[in-house]
Design a protein that fits this description.
Layout (H helix, E strand, L loop, with lengths): L9 H10 L4 E5 L5 H10 L3 E5 L3 H8 L10 H10 L2 E4 L10 E4 L14 H13 L4 E5 L7 H11 L9 E5 L18 E5 L2 H12 L5 E4 L2 H32 L3 H8 L23 H11 L5 H27 L8 E5 L14 H11 L3 E5 L5 E4 L2 E4 L5 H6 L2 E4 L8 H7 L3 E3 L14 E3 L1
Parallel strand pairs: 1-2, 1-4, 2-3, 4-5, 5-6, 7-8, 9-10, 9-13, 13-14, 14-15
Antiparallel strand pairs: 6-7, 11-12
Helix pairs in contact: 1-7, 5-6, 8-10, 8-11, 11-12
Length: 444
């Protein structure tokens, strides 16, 4: 079943393989983006190999053990048992794959510059084994130009020609952890190819498992689409966070303002304030865009200001906690603080870039004693320190000088928390339906 022996162009051969579900798919990076994608491909009949340097993840996949909440445990176990899905830490078999999808992290450096070292590392692995008749798709969020300026030169070192011998696309991931309505399958997919042949092959590949695929004119458009989507959220969250800061000065409730504004049937889209922004996208992507803009002597001042406001929200939360403690006659130093929720948003286990972690760091720096409870995050390690979630008992709630709600998980009984707490700083309006003991509540 050697690709070169089949009749027709490499482009047509590869598209036929996709249509017949006869292609071997490699997914580099089997985290929040890669594993759901790998499972969707395996579900429709493709053989899929997930590649990852994390040997623990590899072992879990090969044992049929799911670690991503948006993946169905039973479906994944069945796929592994049937041999349709497997994982490996050995990237040397990439040459066997007909399609290689890159879903690796793209963090920021300590100076808030893009870190695309993971893309480069996988790109070098792919380039070393690239053969005629392969599709390479980058899904990792990055700045406009990465696919053609970074990945393409690496792949062209093979001597193969893009659009003829191999095909290269960018297709941004659109994963919303915990969203039961929009999954990998029914979330519209944007694809931009280096050449028309590339986008044609890429679109054919994704249309096997995704309901609606939108082709755009270039990888750069697709890359900009992704960073714009997350910058849109960042800017609007910053706007409502700044309104929360102003409402705090004015002595009015931002939540009452938002509830009233949201009744307008047109010209408004609701965003809620909070202790900051978290996850892999919203805290990072605007800085990718700002960094790239400087290359063109352009400063995205509006976007940079939004990032500055969101970054400062944990400091404002720390101030609210200090004020709440002061009103009860306690100082922040030595105070017993119970944090509820460290995940970056409700009902998920993802704590990457969570503002809750920053708030806890600031409180610890001020000498407070901190415990946390999060049913989705039993433990985490930050700056070399390991934290463990504790049971949420009435006694522990009552002992705390202040309870701080940083993530509004659904399963927490906020009536019970309010009943037993001395004072609560609620940064998410999680207690909005609590009727008894509201004098204990301090809202953002």
């Amino acid at each position: 079943m050697e690709l070169l022996e089949a009749p027709g162009s490499l482009r047509d051969q590869l598209k036929k393989k996709f249509a017949d579900r006869d292609a071997l798919i490699g997914v580099a990076g089997i985290g929040y983006v890669g594993l759901p994608l790998a499972v969707e491909k395996a579900k429709v009949g493709f053989d899929v190999i997930g590649y990852d340097r994390n040997s623990v993840r590899v072992d879990q996949v090969n044992q049929g053990l799911n670690y991503i909440r948006d993946v169905n445990d039973g479906e994944m176990a069945t796929l592994v048992e049937s041999g349709k899905l497997r994982a490996s830490s050995d990237f040397s078999s990439l040459s066997r794959c007909d399609a290689i999808v890159i879903c690796v992290p793209t963090p920021l450096t300590v100076n808030l510059d893009p870190d695309i070292s993971y893309i480069k590392a996988v790109g070098e692995q792919v380039a070393a084994q690239l053969r005629p008749g392969q599709l390479v798709c980058l899904e990792s969020t990055t700045y406009p130009g990465t696919t053609e300026e970074v990945l393409l030169p690496l792949l062209e070192q093979s001597g193969l020609k893009v659009g003829e011998d191999f095909f290269l696309c960018f297709s941004p991931e659109r994963v919303d952890p915990g969203n039961a309505r929009y999954t990998t399958k029914n979330t519209n997919k944007v694809v931009g190819g280096v050449t028309p042949a590339c986008v044609d092959v890429g679109s054919c590949f994704y249309s096997q498992t995704i309901l609606n695929v939108l082709e755009v004119s270039s990888p750069k458009v697709a890359e900009m689409c992704k960073v714009f989507e997350n910058t849109f959220r960042s800017v609007n969250i910053a706007l409502v966070n700044e309104m929360a800061l102003l409402c705090d000065r004015l002595g009015i409730s931002i939540w009452e303002v938002l509830d009233a504004a949201a009744t307008k049937p047109f010209g408004i889209m609701r965003f809620d304030p909070g202790p900051g922004v978290g996850g892999h996208c919203i805290p990072l992507d605007p800085f990718y865009l700002a960094w790239k803009a400087r290359e063109y002597d352009y400063h995205v001042r509006f976007i940079e200001l939004a990032g500055e406001i969101n970054i400062n929200m944990p400091y404002f939360v720390r101030e609210k906690i200090a004020r709440a403690l002061n009103d009860t006659g306690r100082a922040l130093r030595g105070a017993d603080i119970l944090v509820l929720g460290v995940a970056y948003k409700k009902d998920i286990e993802d704590w990457r870039e969570s503002p809750a972690i920053k708030v806890m760091e600031l409180l610890s720096r001020d000498g407070a004693n901190i415990d946390y409870h999060d049913p989705f995050v039993p433990k985490f390690v930050e700056h070399g320190k390991q934290w463990h979630s504790i049971p949420l008992s009435n006694e522990r709630i009552a002992r705390a000088d202040c309870v701080v709600i940083l993530t509004d998980h659904t399963d927490v009984d906020y009536d019970r928390v309010t009943e037993h707490a001395k004072v609560i700083v609620d940064t998410r309006n999680a207690t909005k339906r609590v009727t008894q003991g509201r004098e204990k509540l301090v809202l953002l």
